[in-house]
Here is the input.
Amino acid sequence: MYRPAVIAIGALLAGLAAAPLLQAQTARPNVVFIMTDDVGYGDIGSYGARDVLTPNIDQLAREGTRFTDFYANAPVCTPTRAGFVTGRYQQRVGLERALSGPARTNGVGLTANGRTLPQLLKNSGYTTGLVGKWHLGYELDQSPSAHGFDYFFGFKSGYVDYYQHTNGAGADDLWENEREIEVDGYLTDLFTERSVDFIRQNADRPFFLSVQFNAAHWPYQPPDMPSVARGNATHLQPHTEDTSTRDDYVAMLERADRGIGEIVWALTDAGLSENTLVIFTNDNGGEWLSNNAPLFNRKWTVWEGGIRVASILRWPGVIPANRVTPQVGITMDLTATILAVTDTRVPAELDLDGINLLPILTGEAPTVERTLFWRSPNRADRAVRSGDWKLVVQGSQGGRPSFVFNVRTDLGERNDMTNVRQDVARRLRGLLDAWEAEVDADAETVAGGFR
Here is the structure.
């Protein structure tokens, strides 16, 4: 796909003619990072979807490498985004829960310290842009610009009305840099337009563009709704009268896929496709209208359906096309990868928890065994994956039942092997307890949400 609704032939020819010049001017690779919101593992065509059409995401998979065992840093929004921006476990910075929607003055958020991803890239000579959802704080020193984004267009709370651009309290929440603005339009389309504009305006210099679509997060408002049916930003439940439908959700996701096609086409039109790393992923497992199959459970949980997500990396001529990798990865690995491919200096005091995935994807290095950890927002449930084995510990009181699964062969976590693999349970429980002690000790030293 990768084509907008209307393609100007003149613009296409001009883009092709300018390609060699632009690529010479931007020898350092550009990075376009695309994250969708609350999309299920089984909602993408290349991951098995049958009732959703995602041709543009699927083309990224054909032209790049697709992960089968990729994870979000957390089962909800804010923590995963904190993990991406810092490149570290979000527990270390005291952001383990989704920031409560419309609150603007409680002071909780990711306070800038000069060591987050956009600031490091900016220090390295990159023009940086964020289009879409922030959800890491309202205060001035927690804003995208304080973290090094040269340009920001989007919203700061956890969710907004797609048409009215108001948050759960009914307050306006659409920003351009540090200024609240009013712009008519369906939010997914506005994010696509601003992303395309950013690419065109910065085609002659290295750039990092983070596109954080809020689709398909509730409120489930599909595109082209009649104004009388729109309502405000409310989270409808399956038992709610006149609730949302799977068709609503599908329409929202398909519009985001169309936007992704337009963004990737803008790279081609500007002659930047060969010199741009495009990353697609999701922030956590899907909600109740999503399809997380073949995984178990959904958002908010540390079961596979709450944390395993789609992820695709495309870089023509560098990352092999039409490949599927079994390498286990996590959101903060993307941070380390971006810093490495852009040759950005990482301060000695910044101890990244993620790894650079590029050598593994290119075949320069073999796949590596990972040990990764998760904790639910209320800290009741915990999980660790080490190699192919996963331990889930439920409950914060009483017996705290444990479950052991081989998630390489048992994606649905249906075959609990605790009764025969006590050795795995003991080993993984020790790793989990040690990790919790470490990150919680770090969090105790955090002042104002981030040190």
